[in-house]
Amino acid sequence: MNMKKVAAAVLSRYQTRNPFKICDMMGINVAFTDLNGTRGFFHRALNVDTIYIDDSLNGYVQEFVCAHELGHALLHADYNAVYLDTRTYQVMGKLENAADRFAAFLLWPDDDELLEYADYSYERLSFAMGLPENLVRWRFEQISPERMES
Question: Going by DSSP bridges, is the β-strand pair 48-54/29-33 parallel, antiparallel, or unpaired?
Answer without folding.
Answer: parallel
